[in-house]
What we know:
Largest sheet: none
Structural class: mainly alpha
Distance between the termini: 32 Å
Shape: globular
Order of helices and strands: HHHHHHHHHHH
Low-confidence stretches: 173-183
Amino acid sequence: FVAIEDKRFREHNGVDWKRTFAAFANMFVDLYSSNQGGSTITQQLVKNLTGDNSQTPMRKVREIMRARYLEDNYAKETILECYLNTIAMANGIYGVEVASNYYFDKTVSELNLTECAALAAMTREPERYRPDKNPENNEERRKLVLSEMLDQGLITQEEHDAAVATPLNVVASKENTNEVEVNSYFIDTVISDVIDRLV
């Protein structure tokens, strides 16, 4: 996830100014063929926790300030763990542990490198890159994740080649994909009441 989403995660203080300025400049001058995201993992965590997704300069300022606050008060490992537990993974799934169970019928600790890369490949557009519905898209992006890991020295050439050659065994069925659990009005009310009392 770090290799594909925020390769300078361990060095920056919540904001990768280089990426932020590049993304800002790209809005006015076509430096890249697509919109390049300037958000770090910390900034994405802020969005996940606050739900603040408005496309305004003030939202970006709030996000930067909140990201700096998180970095000042929490360890990088805590920030990364929170991000991995709140990230959208398509099909109404949030968090890599739930995604791991759904897509591969395994806990995260049991995943191989190919399966880890398949989940990391989903971060950009979860629905477009989900391995059960769009395996070709996932495979293409998965190879990019593995290539980034190799370039950044996180895996060896042998590990890279083995992961690329390993077939992905997705256990999520079409029936499971189409099932969406909807709570009744009563359940929603109970959940809301419990949250209000806890607060």
